[in-house]
Design brief:
Length: 89
């Protein structure tokens, strides 16, 4: 059996909003429907708890063109400043 859906009037929501948020956060209710004059005006749902995995999130979003070698060093054989004791220029 699923979690209950709570329906409250705007006035009742105003008086009990913190308690209703606690019910959502603790997964005691599936959602809260707020009504005005018997008609729904808002629905509150708990957020998804699981975050999407980071590994592979951008898979396929970059294309290497022109046979560029990504393993090739990006610098020449010039000495770095730090090797010469120069820390700032």
């Amino acid at each position: 059996m699923g979690l209950p859906v709570v329906t409250v009037s705007v006035t009742e929501f105003k008086a009990k909003c913190l308690s209703l948020f606690d019910d959502l956060e603790d997964r005691r209710v599936a959602k809260i429907v707020v009504t005005r004059h018997g008609r729904p005006v808002a629905e509150l749902n708990p957020p998804d708890r699981e975050l999407p995995p980071l590994f592979g999130a951008h898979s396929g979003s970059v294309e290497v063109v022109g046979g560029y070698d990504l393993t090739r060093p990006t610098f020449d054989d010039d000495a770095f400043d730090a090797e010469s004791g120069i820390l700032h220029r």
